[in-house]
Design goal:
heterodimer, A: 7 helices, 48% helix, globular, B: 125 residues, alpha/beta, 3 helices
């Protein structure tokens, strides 16, 4: 069955968009997105603290897509035009806040690990996230992909809002995972 | 020992490491693979630790750093601890923009973990 991004990932048409993309996530795509975001935030004249928070969260989110978006159902690779690192993202202003929406494919095991981690970070207050961040920073080894398990904790800590997530089932036991991050000015 | 210098890019920081004990890390540290980037920095510090200057100061002035870099930066700080145990009077200065509460908080995170003198220095707009 074909994958329809419009069904699995919001269009964000009603956002004041800084950047929107779907396709293979490469280092060049990330660089281009960050450059557009940088320019967009500067153009809007956003306060420095807010700009830096948004930029940091987007860096982390996009690099998560880059590092962890290598699961693509074989039956969809031809349709999507890539064998790995397919992802989608939107960053923009909507309803008085900045929103960052990201999506990528995951398998059942990844979904389980993500749900556990997302529920954990969503269940912590600012102090709890601070303690967890420091503990993971100081005690955890590097993961195979060069990260240290800090990405979601860092995003949750900086956004100071609940992370909203959804897993849409896709053929073959896979899911399309979307994560919405909200940042208040 | 030779001075170690790397020019900064849009994603990687400017690094200047001098055998006279002044170490500087500034700019943006957001590479996709921080381990590869910081490897030569750690190698230089290992060499420096064998015969450090009487005083070693690391000035960190980062605009952004990703979580991949955060672990490398902590490893760098832990290496400085080893340098202080080798007899060098060692300290870290963490510079942050006065409006950047996240960078201030990051400095506090490191200050709590690291066991050598760690100063938070704010700079104005």
């Amino acid at each position: 069955m074909a994958f329809d991004l419009s069904v699995n990932f919001p269009s964000c048409d009603d956002w004041l968009l800084f950047v929107r993309y779907s396709g293979m996530i490469s280092s060049a795509v990330i660089d281009d997105a960050l450059q557009k975001l940088d320019s967009g935030l500067e153009e809007k004249g956003c306060p420095l603290g807010f700009c830096k928070k948004v930029y940091s969260i987007v860096v982390e989110g996009l690099q998560n897509l880059f590092h962890h978006g290598d699961t693509i159902p074989v039956q969809l690779q031809e349709q999507l035009g890539c064998a790995k690192n397919y992802g989608a993202f939107c960053v923009g202003l909507h309803e008085g806040e900045c929103k960052v929406l990201m999506g990528n494919f995951v398998d059942a095991a990844q979904r389980e690990a993500l749900v556990e981690r997302l529920e954990m970070v969503n269940g912590l207050d600012a102090e709890g996230l601070r303690v967890l961040y420091r503990e993971v920073l100081n005690n955890q080894l590097y993961s195979q992909k060069g990260g240290g398990g800090l990405g979601l904790i860092d995003i949750a800590r900086k956004s100071r809002e609940q992370l909203t997530y959804h897993f849409s089932p896709v053929d073959g036991g896979y899911y399309f995972y979307t994560l919405l991050i909200r940042i208040q000015p | 020992m030779e001075v170690f210098k790397i020019a900064g890019t849009a994603k990687t920081p400017t690094i200047s490491l001098s055998p006279d004990g002044l170490l500087v890390l500034e700019g943006r540290s957001i590479p996709e693979n921080s381990i590869d980037f910081y490897r030569p920095v750690m190698e230089w510090l290992e060499g420096y630790a064998k015969k450090p200057s009487a005083k070693t100061v690391l000035q960190v002035k980062l605009e952004y750093f990703n979580t991949s870099s955060s672990k490398c930066i902590l490893d760098l700080f832990k290496k400085l601890h080893a340098i202080s145990e080798a007899g060098s009077e060692t300290s870290i200065q963490w510079h942050y923009h006065e409006e950047d509460e996240d960078m201030h908080e990051a400095g506090e995170d490191y200050r709590e973990i690291v066991s050598i003198p760690f100063e938070l220095v704010s700079y104005p707009s």
